């Protein structure tokens, strides 16, 4: 059995930590970490909900299902979250990943609903396409104060690498810089939350654990955050078409659209946003937005300072739709567009060759057709043959 206990909130120097112990009972833990925690600037310590274990259920549950251990929480959690985990979430995860097994979750009771819910309506700001599209729709375009974003968050929970790796921590902090500047331009507060949830990535890979870690970070802020938009990178059509492709591999692609609505407590509602758009449609949505033109940052992080490299698949699948839209030069502050023009022909050939296999390259080819944009011909691809440069 895995047991989660000893929930505490304490401040050390400038940071407040919300922390629990995690113990394997009658089994040896394969992890060196013995606690799970979240940290925030002590000025914002009130945001952490320390009367409920809600933020410490999902990651331990996933580990329990992976290691075939029941899970006991020695404290209270949201009744709503408990019910959804018991009846639905475990089934979805078992369908997603063949190595998982259903387990028994027991708790010591249910947390009382809050007298007043928090006032913050938030989302993450990574400055990627998904993140900026969510902010554009739910801050710039939204007028209803109950649904309009009024706070931005940056969670360090393993998007860029493993816990304890100084290089990845530096990259994570570098990648926070455009978000902080964008938040300032927008007049929104930007809160940084640190965690150690990615310490468990050494056994559980990123595309399985990181999404759960993001949801958990949002739940840790239950005293302040009443709604949190989770920007999804997968659209509804893709989820249907590429279900097998994402099985055992990418939790977001496989099930985020119907998993997130189940990650709810009486304090905090998570809303999955972005599944209604293809990635190219999100780019079209934000292409004329000055904030996107100044801060768009999509790169897989091959550059030391975290800027867009312009060469990796993620950069290229962003640049081609911008070219199709006639907006390349508007993004010259964040991409080397001249360099892209030199190499774009080969990338376009690759998109044509991968049509039907890769969701993003399908989108780009379809988007070119929809916009009457001239792509290379099959003859061009044949002539180039082995000379093609693959990225
Ligand atoms: Zn790149």
Give descriptors for this structure:
391 residues, alpha/beta, globular, binds zinc ion
Tell me about this structure.
With 391 residues, the chain is an alpha/beta fold. The chain folds into three domains: 2-110, no CATH class; 120-273; 298-387, no CATH class. The protein has 14 helices and ten strands. Helix 3 (129-140) packs across helix 9 (279-286). It is globular and about 65 Å long. The mean pLDDT is 91. The site of zinc ion has 9 residues, from helix 11.
Summary, kept brief:
The protein has 391 residues and is α/β, with parallel strands linked by helices. Helices cover 40% and strands 18% of the residues. The chain is built from 14 helices and ten strands.
């Amino acid at each position: 059995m895995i047991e989660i206990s000893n929930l505490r909130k304490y401040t050390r120097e400038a940071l407040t930590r919300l922390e629990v112990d995690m113990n394997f009972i009658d089994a040896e833990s394969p992890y060196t970490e013995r606690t799970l925690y979240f940290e925030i600037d002590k000025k914002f310590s009130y945001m952490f909900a320390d009367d409920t274990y809600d933020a410490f259920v999902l990651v331990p549950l996933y580990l329990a299902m992976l290691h075939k251990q029941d899970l006991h929480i020695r404290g209270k959690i949201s009744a709503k979250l408990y019910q959804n985990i018991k009846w639905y979430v475990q089934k979805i995860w078992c369908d997603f990943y063949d190595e998982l097994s259903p387990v028994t979750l027991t708790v010591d009771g249910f947390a009382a609903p809050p007298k007043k819910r928090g006032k913050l309506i938030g989302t993450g700001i990574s400055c990627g396409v998904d993140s900026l599209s969510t902010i554009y729709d739910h801050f710039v375009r939204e007028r209803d104060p109950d649904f309009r974003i009024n706070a931005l968050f940056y969670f360090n929970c393993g998007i860029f690498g493993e816990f304890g790796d100084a290089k990845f921590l530096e990259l994570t902090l570098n990648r926070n810089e455009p978000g902080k500047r964008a938040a300032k331009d927008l007049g929104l507060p930007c809160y940084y939350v640190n965690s150690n949830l990615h310490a468990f990535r050494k056994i559980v890979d990123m595309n399985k654990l990181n999404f759960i870690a993001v949801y958990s970070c949002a739940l840790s802020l239950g005293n302040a955050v009443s709604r949190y938009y989770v920007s999804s990178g997968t659209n509804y059509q893709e989820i249907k078409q590429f279900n097998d492709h994402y099985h055992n591999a990418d939790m977001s692609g496989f099930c985020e659209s119907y998993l997130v609505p189940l990650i709810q407590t009486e304090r905090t509602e998570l809303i999955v946003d972005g599944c209604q758009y293809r990635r190219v449609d999100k780019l079209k949505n934000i292409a004329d937005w000055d904030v996107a033109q100044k801060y768009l940052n999509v790169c897989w992080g091959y550059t030391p300072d975290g800027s867009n490299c312009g060469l990796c698949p993620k950069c290229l699948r962003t640049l081609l739709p911008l070219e199709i839209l006639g907006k390349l030069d508007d993004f010259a502050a964040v991409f080397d567009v001249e360099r892209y023009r030199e190499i774009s022909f080969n990338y376009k050939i690759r998109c044509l060759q991968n049509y039907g296999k890769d969701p993003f390259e399908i989108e780009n080819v379809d988007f070119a057709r929809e916009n009457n944009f001239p792509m290379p011909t099959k003859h061009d691809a044949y002539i180039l043959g082995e000379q093609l440069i693959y990225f």
